[in-house]
Amino acid sequence: MSLTLEAPRRRSARYRLNRALLYLLAVVLTLFILLPIYLITIAAFSPRAAVYTFPKPFVPTELSTDTLRFFLGSTGVARAFRNSLIVGVATVLLSLLIGAPAGYALARFVFPGRDSFKLLILSTRAFPIVILSIPLAVMFIDWRIYDTIPAVVLAHTALALPTTVLVTSSIFLGVPRELEEAAETLGCTPLGAFWRVVLPLALPGLAAAAIFTFVLSWNEVFAATILTVRNRTLPAHVLGVLNDSPLPFQFAGGFALVVPSLVFIFFMRRYLLNMWGRVTK
After folding, report:
1. Distance of CA 140 to the CA centre of its chain
2. Residue 56 gets which letter from DSSP?
3. Nearest-angstrom CA–CA distance, 274 and 80
């Protein structure tokens, strides 16, 4: 009898230990991500003179928008911020417009060389952007779109497309084909079945792909630096003046680079929760 009860107790203790380690790992990872963001944030909302103090207090004693206003009022920042937003949104739309149909085709249709085609798509990510940027710059000069926002959008879309195609392909694979066929038997056209049945079920995954694409575009700096001179995105502009800028500019610039991605994720989070399942007690 005692041996019969001992085994469940051991499994229960091992389960609690595994859960505790899992929670501890989650806390450590969360702190690893949030701590730098917190330090940059309190520096961005401190008076400019307080940015130079050392050691810095972990809890700020005085909050001010002085540093942030100094950054936003610097030459070229507002224009670079607007360029980054335009490039990010345009890259998301273009990537989904091209990548989602390709992902749907990979998920629904069987054709010779499909697996090789997937590997070929994935292999394009192996090319360093350093190698791709120079030929792209030469090509865009020939096309007379060098140093323009469409050039950066095209470059960022090319970078994001492999991931978008593969992610959306896995998303459409998760939607049962039987639901689509049932909708067609009830009178829907193939396009109507996709619009009314498949697309609502795939929206959480598409939102995740959109978040990844936006963050990739927002944080991308090398291609934007090579392909633009006057119409730079915010990361490229901050990088270009980093060595000659004071500390308040650098901290506020770091904050400005992080916030839009967090805001975008905040508005798209409900789609992610729907995809991964809500946490229930």
Report:
1. 26
2. P
3. 34
pLDDT tens for each residue of the chain, 281 residues long: 555 666 666 777 788 888 899 999 999 998 998 888 888 888 888 888 887 877 777 787 788 888 888 888 888 888 998 999 999 999 999 999 999 888 888 888 888 887 788 778 777 777 777 777 788 888 888 988 888 999 999 999 988 888 888 888 888 888 888 888 888 888 888 888 888 888 888 887 788 788 888 888 888 888 888 888 888 888 888 888 888 888 888 888 888 888 877 776 776 666 555 544 444 44
The residue type found at 14 is: R
CB hemisphere CA count around 221 (13 angstroms)? 10
Cis before 101? omega within 30? no
For 47, residues 6+ apart whose C-beta sits below 8 A from its C-beta are 62, 64, 66, 67
Residues 6 or more apart whose Cβ sits within 8 Å of residue 87: 149, 152, 153, 156, 217, 224, 233
* CA distance linking residue 247 with residue 245, whole number of Å: 7
Nearest partner of 94 among 13, 153, 27, 30, judged by Cα: 153
